[in-house]
Predict the 3D structure of the following.
Amino acid sequence: MAGRRHLTFAWVLAGAGLVYVVYQIKTGNYRQVLFTLRDMAGVWSMVRHYLLLGPEPFQRGTYNSLQKLAYTVVIGLLVALVVTGAALHKPVQLSWLATLLGGFRLARVWHFAAMCALLAFIPVHVLMVALHGWRNFASMWIGIRADPLTHSHRSY
């Protein structure tokens, strides 16, 4: 029973990830979400700011460099979960994939580590959204943020 639940939620996660990727590509939003080499310089200044050791750096787009890095890492973790999960679910049919991952046992380690990292991201993400204000927190749930200066709404 637990195995079936695991597989069910794996398909839900993979499906949601696929919908997310298609949406990002179709809307072009991936340009503002994915971390690039240009964003590298802004990461440490944002870390210092979040640790209350420096001022908030200038932000060019919707997401700062640290947010872009976090979102890009999460996308990588989701890909790792799907790939390692496939190798674990079909070890005979996908033995080449398990071998590529260092063997069945190491594939299990990679799968578990990726899931732990993804689970660690969630409370940190919710905390950071909440620290940036209630409007930001509410927008995460409803997908629309009211701009306090113009009272207009923007859909994500």
Notes: Residues 149-156 have pLDDT under 50 and may be disordered. Residues 81 and 111 are 6 Å apart (CA to CA). The chain has one domain: 2-155.
